[in-house]
Write a structure and sequence with these properties.
Elements: E1 2-3, H1 12-25, H2 43-48, H3 62-69, H4 71-89, H5 94-109, H6 111-114, H7 116-120, H8 128-150, H9 152-158, E2 167-170, H10 175-188, E3 204-207, E4 216-222, E5 231-238, E6 247-252, H11 256-265, H12 270-276, E7 279-280, E8 309-310, E9 316-320, E10 323-329, E11 340-347, E12 350-358, H13 374-383, H14 396-399, H15 411-414, H16 425-435, H17 440-467, H18 472-489, H19 513-520, H20 523-530, H21 534-540, H22 549-552, H23 557-565, H24 580-587, H25 590-598, H26 627-630, H27 637-644, H28 647-656, H29 681-690
Length: 692
């Protein structure tokens, strides 16, 4: 939607909300930094920035100054200029070329009307940076839409074998529906991540001064019921700091006077008291309800469910030939087409559906044949432990329900270069491979990741082969791009943890020859690295993210025994806070545990806190605070064996004298972890009996 947004710098809470909201609103630019980036002062940096289609030194209008100051907009403006020149030159007759030029001039003149924040910003009291952010949010949206329309013919011709695309289910022959279908299909063929069929038709909302930013309150004066009487419609956008998306509500006042009166007599928090004095634009409680005893035969708009919706379900107001309509995502109905509906309102509980678009891939058994593949789920599960947060954090794009908002698997989207802040497939691959060198657990995870990725490639490649007509090698390349995009979209790096950065270094593996040798059991290479002073050199080659070499060698008994005989410490604590014996217990390496115990491994040593937090911290929106329930300091090797290993490992530790009554820092005994075991119930029962 054409959201006009306050400054990024008002509060930490608002910054997160703005980031989430812009993730749905702003199109992802093709290989350029995000909107909102200030122009560098250095001449060399300025020379490297994208240039718009006009000279910035001659820019006078506020919109032009915003475009020059925002690299993503400058790039989009240049892209639109090239797209228009091609569009104009493809006209077969001079009169047609003139008509296309006139239409483009009208579009340029209409930018201020389509983006009220840009038109009003010159009189705003907000600082320049905040005003740029407001204008850029809207301008990015309408520019992306315009480029898609200008390139529609070329893009459609370039992909003749695509058997699926948005289709019109209801409303054929209606000019509104036919025009929107063309816009939707054009946007589908565009290179942006988000599909936007409305462009400059969408009605712009601007912030209401004085109502705060939690929630954000935005206003537009709309003749929502098409009665010739515009009235203030307020949009509440609220983020509750949880893992879900922000929510959106629409409320209205009969007149500007009534709104001002409500603000004047309101009490703090003002945004909430003003909302209490308003009335719903769409009264979901009064809309006709489906009969629960009969199967639903027509899909219903998501806004018919209630007044509070997530941002991916919210309806969007737009103008078409002097009338106001709503574009609304639909509640999915099994076996029924229809993902986007267009409605005309006649009152809070009176509406008529004009158009219905099927915007999903038409498959009989699943809505999205890519993301629903079990192989892809296995891939994401395998990759999650290798990521900084220890799990996949769903991004805003992943949460978007409708195909019209999110179609990241399109080849033309996958081919675009990553935007600023995104990982390329090469960076992701480098991170994964380097992480495998930090210890045997990560090495195991990496092997699982590689196997799952190969399986996922085999599953996803036929989709690009069959649906897009790509050759086998190209289909596999697109499948790889899609898989890696799914991971990099969810890649969250804890800003307070600098330990992740070295894992992106090209020379990381060259500095970890000793770790590679230990993990592969190459004792000859280890002897070359360790030289005449093995104990001292082993300490020196262990980095901030590494487990001890003894731990690295656990899967290779002969190498492990040789390292211990060279004098390396059987009780050295690694970056995980665990001794080699604890890691052996976690990995159920019984022979390695026996070797360690024979070389003086401490049975009841307690685990310390992890030095590198890349597995236990990260984005609070996806990381829960349950780490202590599964890994508290003070845990012993027997505690880990009870939760993760076999009865044979537990028996070895008990027979050697491990204390089954030992309490960790959370006050738990080893037996307390048995109930959380996954896998065969019989093994858990045997271990529980052994620990009594």
């Amino acid at each position: 939607m054409n959201h006009e947004l306050p400054s990024l710098h008002t509060s930490r809470h608002f910054s997160r909300l703005l980031g989430l909201l812009l993730g749905l609103i702003l199109p992802v630019m093709q290989g350029h930094p995000a909107a909102g980036t200030d122009l560098p002062s250095a001449d060399s940096a300025a020379d490297a920035l994208p240039k718009p289609s006009f000279e910035c030194t001659e820019a006078q209008a506020f919109i032009e100054r915003v475009i020059c100051a925002e690299p993503s907009l400058a790039a989009l403006d240049a892209e639109m200029g090239a797209a228009f020149r091609d569009y104009r030159d493809r006209a077969s007759r001079p009169a047609e070329r003139d008509a296309r030029l006139a239409a483009q001039r009208l579009w340029l003149e209409g930018r201020a009307g389509a983006c009220p924040g840009a038109a009003q910003a010159q009189t705003s009291v907000r600082p320049e940076g905040a005003r740029n952010e407001v204008a850029a949010a809207c301008l990015s949206r309408i520019y992306e839409h315009r480029v898609a329309l200008l390139r529609y013919e070329l893009n459609a011709a370039a992909w003749p074998r695509v058997r699926f695309r948005p289709t019109l289910v209801e409303g054929a022959g209606t000019k509104l529906c036919e025009d929107l279908l063309r816009d939707l299909v054009a946007s589908f063929f565009g290179r942006g991540l988000f599909v936007n069929p409305l462009g400059e038709r969408e009605i712009g909302f601007v912030p209401v001064p004085g109502l705060g930013d939690a929630p954000m309150v935005l206003r537009a004066d709309i003749d929502a019921y098409n009665l010739g009487k515009p009235f203030p419609v307020l949009q509440w956008v609220e983020d509750k700091e949880g893992p879900g998306l922000p929510t959106v509500e629409y409320h209205a006042f009969a007149s500007s006077t009534e709104l001002l009166s409500a603000i004047g007599r309101g009490v703090e928090p003002l945004a909430h008291s003003v909302r209490a004095a308003s009335r719903p634009v769409i009264d979901a409680d009064r809309l006709p309800r489906p009969n629960p005893k009969k199967p639903q035969t027509r899909p219903r708009a998501a806004f018919a469910r209630g007044s509070i919706l997530t941002v991916d379900e919210m309806p969007r107001f737009f103008r078409y030939e002097d009338h106001i309509y709503l574009l609304g995502p639909m509640q999915p109905v099994p076996g029924k087409p229809g993902d986007l509906g267009v409605y005309r309102l006649y009152g809070p509980a009176e509406l008529h559906r004009v158009c219905l678009f099927d915007a999903h891939v038409p498959m009989a058994h699943r809505a999205d044949p890519v993301s629903a593949l079990p192989e892809l789920e296995a891939y994401k599960r395998a990759a999650a432990p290798l990521l900084p947060t220890g799990r996949l954090c769903p991004s805003v794009g992943d949460l978007a329900r409708t195909f019209a908002d999110h179609a990241a698997w399109r080849p033309w989207v996958l081919d675009r270069r990553p935007s600023s802040g995104e990982l390329s497939d090469g960076q992701l691959d480098l991170y994964m491979r380097n992480r495998a060198l930090t210890g045997p657990e990560k090495a195991r995870q990496y092997r699982a990741y590689v196997a799952a990725r190969d399986a996922a490639l085999e599953a996803v490649a036929p989709f690009y082969r069959n649906e897009f007509g790509r050759a086998p090698a190209e289909a596999r390349r697109y499948a790889a791009l899609y898989l890696d995009r799914k991971i990099s979209d969810a890649f969250k790096v804890d800003p307070d943890d600098g330990s992740t950065a070295p894992l992106f270094a090209e020379n990381y593996a060259a500095k970890h020859v000793a770790q590679q040798a230990a993990l592969t059991g190459n004792m000859a290479a280890l002897r070359d690295v360790l030289g005449p002073e093995p104990k001292a050199i082993a300490k020196g080659v262990t980095g901030d993210l590494d487990e001890p070499l003894v731990t690295d060698a656990l899967e290779h008994p002969q190498t492990l025994r040789a390292l211990l005989e060279l004098g390396l410490d059987a009780n050295e604590i690694g970056v995980s806070g665990r001794t080699p014996l604890m890691v052996a217990a976690r990995l159920d390496l019984v022979e390695a545990a026996d070797i360690l115990l024979a070389h003086g491994a401490a049975l009841d040593a307690g685990a310390g806190s992890a030095a590198a937090q890349t597995d236990s911290t990260g984005d609070p929106s996806c990381m829960s605070a349950d780490a202590a329930a599964i890994d508290a300091p003070g845990r012993t090797a027997l505690s880990y064996a009870a939760a993760l290993a076999s009865p044979e490992m537990v028996r070895l530790l008990l027979d050697t004298g491990a204390d089954a009554a030992h309490l960790d820092d959370a006050g738990r005994r080893p037996a307390d972890y048995v109930k959380n075991r996954a896998g065969e119930a019989g093994r858990s029962a045997r271990i529980a009996e052994m620990l009594k």
